[in-house]
Amino acid sequence: MDEKRRQSLLEKTARAFDLPVDALAGLPRLELVGDGELRMENHRGILSYGTDEIHISGGAFGVRVSGTELELRTMNSLELLITGRIRAVELI
Amino acid sequence: MQNMVNYARGWVRLQAVGAFPERLLNLCAQHGVTFWAVEWRDGQTLALTVLQGHLGRVRELAPRAGCDLTVEEQAGVPSILTRFRKRYAFLLGLLLSVTVVCIGARFVLTVEVTGNDRVADAAILSQLRREGLRPGVYGPHLDTKQIALNTQLAMEELSWVSVNLYGTRAQVVVREVVSPPDLSPQEGTSDVVAKAGGMVLEMDAAAGQAKVKPGDMVAQGEVLISGTVTMEGPQYSDVPPRYLYVHADGRVWARTWRTVQAAMPLTTATKHYTGREKSRWSVTVLDKRINFFGNSSISWPEYDKISETHVATLPGGQVLPLSATRETLKQWESVPVSVDLTAAQQLLEEQLTQRLEQLVREDGQVVCVDWSAKVADGVLTVTGVAECREQIGVKK
């Protein structure tokens, strides 16, 4: 991930006042349950999809989920759920 | 559970082919289209499953994502119902069934009576029928409180009546009147008299003054125990006797002689079935009888009508207001037959013996009977003179 990514004003404000950044600035929130389930909130859509790798847009950055037998179980405008054998989650 | 919900709502398996099929996923997510089981078949082909109700929305979104949609499979309840869309007879039957269930559930099908012991069910049901509560009546129009009140007022044997409607079942709960105890009157006087003449064997006076003693002969109606008790004054005094008035009570056993008589003609008429029969069927639904025969008049002068009713019941024994009745009409002729003299006499003696046992009641006894029989003008007359031992005292 780019270390020099610029933080938005809302993000800076949320951090300054110790407020939840995901709720205030709409940053993605990822929740990994073991190695079989990944839930992501505040996504911006699927960039590419496959059983071994899924790219998800998180707005200012992307998320790459690697593994085997990956499946997009459910998805709506706010959150998505990926199941399978998850090997790595990277921010790109 | 989720699979069952999806099946109930119906689902469609779609294949999307385009340059960027993932755009279709993003558009679906943004527009609230529920999808699952996404399968990436190759770089331009995507398969996904959506709810059947969202298919139209996906068809609108597909051109915006540059995808061509193909329906691969459909399943679920809506698909099954869609198959029956042009089966008009089935739909009509379904509609009729639903209508019958919806409307039929508002009619009273059974009337149950509970809480009665002495009063017969049939008597209560008859009164309820007069008040308007019967199988087949429209439930919401019933004024249950008024029916209960009227039934209670009409039947003196009932002290409380309640009518409850549970769907198609009307439950009638009753309480019977508790009879007051048989109290002897405290005022006035009464005697114990003989109900039949005879010779007194034993006296058991519980109240009152005995007027007879064992060995006396008494006639019917004679006072055995008097309710007027004479209380004599002291000996050699001028005090007049006083009288105490009570209700006499007691038992007086006596030997009695009773004469019973019965007669029978020696020629009698019997039924002879000619073999001609007719059967008529009818169905009773909700207390309405439907006959399956046109002309109900019978030209035969004499016939027997035998009805056989089959009532529909549920497995639990609940009786339904649906029954089929078969009436069998059998023609017969009257044929004169001579009666066997010995058999006729034996029959009359049996009848007279039963009559004697009724006369002496349960605690009495028929000691012996002398039978005599004679035939005059074609009539057999049997006479029995019986010696009995019975309780002859009755309050009067």
Could you walk me through the main structural features you see in this protein, from its secondary elements to its overall organization?
The complex is a heterodimer of chains A (92) and B (396). With 92 residues, chain A is mostly beta strands. Chain A has one domain: Immunoglobulin-like (Sandwich). Chain A contains two helices and six strands, in the order ααββββββ. Chain A has helices at 9-16, 21-25, and strands at residues 29-33, 37-41, 45-48, 53-57, 62-75, 79-91. The mean pLDDT of chain A is 83. Chain B is α+β, with helices and mostly antiparallel strands. Chain B has five domains: 2-82, Alpha-Beta Plaits, CATH 3.30.70.250; 110-176, membrane protein fhac (Ubiquitin-like (UB roll), Roll), CATH 3.10.20; 192-249, no CATH class; 261-266 and 339-395, no CATH class; 269-337, no CATH class. The model of chain B has no long low-confidence stretch (mean pLDDT 88). Chains A and B meet through strand 3 and strand 5 of A and helix 2 and strand 2 of B.
Summarize the structure.
The complex is a heterodimer of chains A (92) and B (396). Chain A has 92 residues and is mainly beta.
Q: What best-fitting shape of chain B do the alpha-carbon axes yield?
A: elongated
**Number of helical runs of chain B?**
8
- In the residues of chain A, how many domains can be counted? 1
Q: Tell me the distance between the termini of chain A.
A: 5 Å
Broad structural category of chain A: mainly beta
The pLDDT mean of chain A sits at 83
Number of strands of chain B: 22
Reconstruct the topology from this structure.
The complex is a heterodimer of chains A (92) and B (396).
Chain A: H1 9-16, H2 21-25, E1 29-33, E2 37-41, E3 45-48, E4 53-57, E5 62-75, E6 79-91
Antiparallel strand pairs in A: 1-2, 2-6, 3-4, 4-5, 5-6
Chain B: H1 2-9, E1 11-18, H2 21-30, E2 35-42, E3 45-51, H3 55-64, E4 67-75, H4 77-83, H5 88-104, E5 110-114, H6 121-130, H7 144-154, E6 158-166, E7 169-176, E8 192-194, E9 198-207, E10 209-210, E11 217-218, E12 223-226, E13 228-231, E14 242-245, E15 249-265, E16 267-285, E17 288-291, E18 303-313, E19 319-338, H8 341-360, E20 365-376, E21 379-391, E22 393-395
Parallel strand pairs in B: 5-7
Antiparallel strand pairs in B: 1-3, 1-4, 2-3, 6-7, 8-12, 8-22, 9-11, 9-15, 10-12, 13-14, 15-21, 16-17, 16-19, 18-19, 20-21
